[in-house]
Amino acid sequence: MPNEMLHRIVEQLSLADLATWRMVSASNCRIVADILNTDINHNLSRFVQHPSGVRDVMRDARAVISGSFALKIIDRQSTFTPNDVNFYVGKSGHGAIVKYLIEEEGYVTTETIDVDLAVGCGLYNFCGSIASVTKLQARGKNIDVICSTDESPTTPLPYFWTTLVMNFITADSICSAYPAITIRGRGLMHQKRLLDPSLPEGSRILCLEKYQERGYQFRVAPLHGWDVRRDGATRTCAQSWQCPCRNCFFGDAGCLMLNVACRDKAVSIGHQGHLNSPSTPPYGLTNMWRLGGARCGYGCNGEEEPEVETTMVIVTSVAHHVHFVE
In whole angstroms, what is the distance from residue 169 CA to residue 226 CA? Predict the structure, then answer.
């Protein structure tokens, strides 16, 4: 089959199917890497003039992109267009991202919001694990650079109000914390976070409606039948990574992590039922959390309102054993 025709066929696959298909051969791996890199660069080109330069500085600064932009890359069947780009970066890399966007991409800073850490941010607070937000604008496009309270760019992500946006893109990889439901256009949401008064005025309904208008479905607890294997069977609570009482981390067996640089074919897609071992988190750093919220009612013996954990950890082994150093 001609390569161009093969590309067009493979481009129609979901991210989970691409992750599986790429493992068949080195040639497949290169095709998938090319498709995903083209996807990322094409979407970035709406906001920056030099996508490869942005990805270079992301690599050096240890930054990730999350929000709608990352969801667009992960949900390949989506039809919406992201309105902005949200960079998340650790404390030491924040300046490099902002400097690049200003000096190389022509952006100007419109606002810098410093979070008052002395006040403290609760588990449901909008600013959970965020030290500052730098807003930039150029050519009618908006970019936010969100600085984490530590050196992990992903620390704020477990504080998000829905699993639908607990995804991120690094310079060389793609990650979804809850791929089984995200790829199906579904998200669990935490009402206490969504309705917390710390959310910007007027956004608490809009941020939900925005995604509903894009065709996404939301629930406050896992529903029977939401976590479905590829063979159509429903996972029980004990098997599901959606359990609100389960400890999760970026790179666990329920996470989808895909290297788009095609240097390493390792990928963890336990949600989809293919592999069942942890994958390497970006930059050797990850975060551990418990989703919390309402119990699903299908055999969970956890607390009715478990608290969220967001613990800084270091991955010291990337095969099957992960050692958490607090």
Answer: 25
